[in-house]
Amino acid sequence: MKLIIIGAPGSGKGKLSQFLASTCAVPHISSGDIFRKSMELKTPAGLEVAKYINAGKLVPNELTTMTVLYRLEHKDCEKGFVLDGFPRTVAQAERFEEFSDIDYVVHLVTEDDTIIRRLAGRRMCRACGGNYNLLWGAFEKCECGGELYGREDDREETVAARLKIFHELFTPVLNFYKARGTKILTVKSDIKESAEDINNKFMRQFGELFK
Ligand code: AMP
To answer: Selecting from 3.90.190.20, 3.40.50.720, 3.90.1150.10, 3.40.50.300, what CATH number does the domain 2-210 have?
Structure first.
């Protein structure tokens, strides 16, 4: 199974990608994760992409595409993959199309207002990286005793800017796949739904396709 997942930051896309990857027994490939790893390891590519990522910019198409296609050539991707964060531009989608076909695009739709509220309520633990949300309880400390904090880029003004970029970039990518007749599996998530609720809803709607 070859899937592309499209969803805004804070839509629950990462959790849905992991769930679908484990359901289909294929790897979850996130371009952002690959870049973060190479930055951590300070590889030449990592030092190069850090210039863009730290400045809040997109990594150039050529470098991104080469990085992701190289990863997809690994043996574990033979039976498929769940692609998360790629393609992010039509140029990437066009290049990717020469490399592989896909079965479905999964589109996780969330109201902007829901995302702003979710990210505003998100709290991370300084000690263990645990993830909480004030929407689900009045958490003051992490289970491990660590201090909880709100991420700088989850502030309302920053989230609005991230959402604007998301809509500008992904709408043409979605249209690219619609124009090719690729089947788009759309699932809606609202403020009251946890990641597990969304996974279950997805399977109720589309489970037949994944048997
Ligand atoms: P993410 O974890 O998907 O939000 O990605 C983190 C950062 O990596 C983004 O803000 C971009 O700078 C870069 N990045 C990830 N995927 C891509 C992509 N497909 N094209 C260009 N830049 C990307």
So the answer is: 3.40.50.300
**In angstroms, what is the span from residue 60 Cα to ligand 1's centroid?**
10
| pLDDT tier at 9, thresholds 50, 70, 90 | confident
What are the CA-CA distances from residue 195 to residues 80, 110, 198, 200 (Å)? 23, 13, 5, 9
Over residues 104-110, the mean pLDDT reads 95
Catalytic residues: 13, 88, 122, 151, 162
Burial of 87 (0-12, 13-18, 19+ CB in 10 A): buried
Report the atom number in ligand 1 closest to the C-alpha of 86.
19
Question: What angle (nearest 5°) sits at the alpha carbon of residue 124, between those of residues 152 and 10?
Answer: 70
pTM: 0.86
- pLDDT surpassing 80 at residue 205: yes
Confidence tier at 49 by pLDDT (50, 70, 90): very high
For the chain, the domains span: 2-210
